[in-house]
Amino acid sequence: MSRIGKLPITLPEKVSLTISADNLVTVEGSKGTSSLQVNPLIKIEQEEGTVYVKRQNETKQEKALHGLYRALIQNMVTGVSDGFVKELEIIGVGYRAAMSGNVLELALGFSHPIYFVAPEGISIDVDTKRGKNAIIVISGSSRELVGQVAANIRALRKPEPYKGKGIRYLGEKIRRKAGKSASK
């Protein structure tokens, strides 16, 4: 039995989960609504605030899907109740970030500013009060979308190994390289 798949999913208060006849799972909460089309090999059962994900057979494909769909449904429940947050840190002289509406404006050492439009369902804030470096806070109800937006912003100027300048996840350690050494 899948160690992840056999765990029950408890629904918090103010979160409702509905399962349609064609295995479409819809989760509604205070942060929004999320839906997922579940493979017909996997069966979803709901009992008094608890959801169980079960498989019908012991085939390799069903074993793989069992834990996957349980994790996806758990992420949907967590997303609509609490939400997900990723934080990025901008390090470098002259590197700045500012929000104007839903557009993130970045100055990353290029000859031009970079504009990043937040997709629907994602909110981006810039926090400059935590220290000398600006911190970009990305939040939303979809774990996948929050992670993808954070990765897209980080890819605009990845941290380089010599001085460590660039955009990195908050708390990310960058392996530093030694620069040129003077010869005698």
Could you give me the name of the CATH homologous superfamily of the largest domain?
Ribosomal protein L6
Instruction: Look at the helices and sheets and give the structural class.
Output: alpha+beta
Strand content: 35-45%
What is the count of structural domains? 2
| Terminal Cα span | 65 Å
| Rough outline | elongated
Main beta-sheet annotation: 4 strands, antiparallel
Q: CATH top level of the largest domain? A: Alpha Beta
Helix content: 10-25%
Number of helices: 2
**What is the mean predicted local confidence, pLDDT?**
91
CATH fold topology of the largest domain: Outer Surface Protein A, domain 3
Q: Largest beta sheet: what is the strand line-up? A: 11-12-7-13
Walk me through this protein's architecture:
The protein is of the alpha+beta class and 184 residues long. It has two domains: 9-81, Ribosomal protein L6 (Outer Surface Protein A, domain 3, Alpha-Beta Complex); 84-169, Ribosomal protein L6 (Outer Surface Protein A, domain 3). The protein is 18% helix and 37% strand. The chain is built from two helices and 13 strands; from the N terminus they run E-E-E-E-E-E-H-E-E-E-E-E-E-H-E. A four-stranded antiparallel sheet has the order 11-12-7-13, covered by helices on one side. A three-stranded antiparallel sheet has the order 1-6-5. A hairpin with a 2-residue loop joins strand 5 (42-47) and strand 6. The longest helix has 22 residues, at 60-81. The radius of gyration is 21 Å and the shape is elongated. The N and C termini lie far apart (65 Å). The relative contact order is 0.14. The model has no long low-confidence stretch (mean pLDDT 91).
